[in-house]
Amino acid sequence: MNHKSIAIDGPAGAGKSTLARKLAEKLGFLYVDTGAIYRTVAVKVLWEKADPADPAQVIPLLEGLEIHIGYDSDGVQRMYLEGEDVSAAIRKHKVSGVASQVSAIPEVRAFLLDFQRKLARESNVVMDGRDIGTVVLPQADVKIFLTAAPEARAKRRLLELEQRGEAADFDAILRDIKDRDWQDEHRPIAPLKQAADAVLLDTTHLDLGQSMNQLLFLVKEKIK
Ligand code: DC
């Protein structure tokens, strides 16, 4: 049976994961946060104290790497590395930068490509990431490029951290977001970019509810 797939790409902090998860819930599709998979590889690199900028240290770690995705009863994705639940660890600030670094290594991307495609072969999916519409699922039924101005993304991130009771500084967050955008957009392999047939959704001036309505409208137009 042919499964449906919805690809949602865009920079960090555009609201991809929140919107993609809600969309998946509404449609009864599986939600796949591919950034979480790259983050899990980053945790392995940190565990092994390897240098994420050095492919020669990272590539050998891929052999026999045991990564699994699980889902809570409410559809929340959980990541397991060698049997250990690393769902909280992958959200640490340090992991973001390392994930961005290891994601620039072609062998890491090739390794995760099959993993991601397999998920889309087995289920209807809403998959979010950077290269889903361009590389992972070029035949996706719907492709959305979700973005927002860096300042708007930094403001949302600040609020999120404050709500979690974590200390945060707007300027540092903004700098971080811009650095990561640059890294993700300029890597030679599978850089972050809008697929030619993706629909652009800019949420700079939209709140979550408005963004969700727009997203649903776009998806329903394509998947009847
Ligand atoms: O979406 P995120 O911040 O959790 O992603 C972490 C890093 O993983 C991000 O800097 C870029 C990389 N990534 C990628 O290269 N391709 C994807 N499909 C998803 C994430």
Q: Could you describe the 3D structure shown?
A:
With 224 residues, the chain is of the alpha/beta class. The protein has helices at residues 16-27, 34-47, 55-58, 93-102, 106-122, 132-136, 150-163, 170-186, 208-222; strands at 5-9, 30-33, 67-71, 77-81, 84-85, 125-129, 142-147, 199-202. Helices cover 48% and strands 16% of the residues. The strands form two sheets. Strands 2-6-1-7-8 form a five-stranded parallel sheet, sandwiched between helices. A three-stranded antiparallel sheet has the order 3-4-5, covered by helices on one side. Helix 2 crosses helix 4 and helix 7 packs across helix 8. Residues 12, 34-35, 38-39, 96, 99-100, 103, 129-132, 180, 184 line the site of 2'-deoxycytidine-5'-monophosphate.
Summarize this, please?
The protein is α/β, with parallel strands linked by helices and 224 residues long.
Low-confidence stretches: none
Percent of residues in helices: 40-55%
The structural class is alpha/beta
Please list the strands of the largest sheet in the order they lie side by side. 2-6-1-7-8
What is bound: which ligands?
A: 2'-deoxycytidine-5'-monophosphate
Oligomer: single chain
The proportion of residues in beta strands is 15-25%
Overall pLDDT level: 93
The rounded Rg comes to 17 Å
Q: Given the structure, what is the number of helices?
A: 9
| Secondary-structure element series | EHEHHEEEHHEHEHHEH
Largest sheet: 5 strands, parallel
**Inertia-based shape:** globular
How far is it from the N-terminal to the C-terminal residue, by CA? 18 Å
Number of DSSP-assigned strands: 8
